[in-house]
Amino acid sequence: MSYYYQGNLAMELEKKSSSVTKTTKRTVRIKPTIPTGEKLLYLLFISLTVTGLGMVGVRYSQISQMNYEIQSTKKENRLIAENNATLKLQIEQLSNRDRIQREAERQGMVYNANAVHTIGQENGKASSLQQKPNQP
Q1: At a CB cut-off of 8 Å and minimum separation 6, what does 101 contact?
Q2: What is the pLDDT of residue 117?
Q3: Phi, psi angle pair for 14, to nearest 5°
Q4: What is the DSSP letter of 2?
Q5: Each residue of 120-134: b (16+ CB within 10 Å) or e?
Q6: How many CA atoms lie within 13 A of 27 on its CB side?
Q7: pLDDT higher than 60, residue 127
Q8: How many CB atoms lie within 10 A of CB 70?
Q9: Between residues 115 and 71, the one the model is more confident about
Q10: Are the C-beta atoms of 104 and 113 separated by less than 8 Å?
Q11: CA dist., res. 91 & res. 93, Å (int)
Q12: Percent of the chain with pLDDT over 90
């Protein structure tokens, strides 16, 4: 019959409240954060690394630009050298003595053998001063 006995509920509550509750203290361990000076040191290292990589990238692009300019200058020099070679050949063709004489005669000039002087001959005499061999 003990399960029928409920007794005074107010007394039971007092009994429960008077019971000793055991409280335990927990120690909460907080992880130490990185000190401010060390954070600044890391930030400085990262910023120097990023700056260094940026400078390497800039220098690489400048080197690439210079290589492109060198290649274009070499190509331009090759084209100019080819042009100079054709111009020298043209000068040689135009300065041919027979062509100059034909062009002068076409424009109405007459050849005077006494007025022609050749410079730079081995014996030092001019060609207009040379005598023709006598024919018998």
Answers
A1: 111
A2: 78
A3: -70, -35
A4: T
A5: eeeeeeeeeeeeeee
A6: 2
A7: no
A8: 10
A9: 71
A10: no
A11: 5
A12: 45
The angle subtended at Cα 116 by Cα 111 and Cα 120, nearest 5°, is 145
Rounded to whole angstroms, how far apart are CA atoms 117 and 120? Answer: 10
Place of tokens 């019971």: 19
d(CA 47, CA 99): 76
Q: What one-character-per-residue DSSP string does 57-76 give? A: HHHHHHHHHHHHHHHHHHHH
- Give, as one character, the DSSP assignment of residue 19: S
Separation in Å, CA 25 to CA 17, 22, 28, 100, 135 = 21, 10, 9, 120, 146
Interval 109-124: pLDDT, tens: 888 878 877 887 655 4
d(CA 124, CA 116): 15
Written as six digits, the tokens of 134 are 């006598």
Q: For tokens 């690489």, name the residue.
A: 60
Compute CA distances 66 → 52, 55, 61, 70, 72, whole Å: 21, 16, 9, 6, 10
Q: What residue spans of 95-117 are helical by DSSP H?
A: 97-106
Where does the pLDDT of residue 6 fall: very low under 50, low under 70, confident under 90, or very high at 90 and above?
low
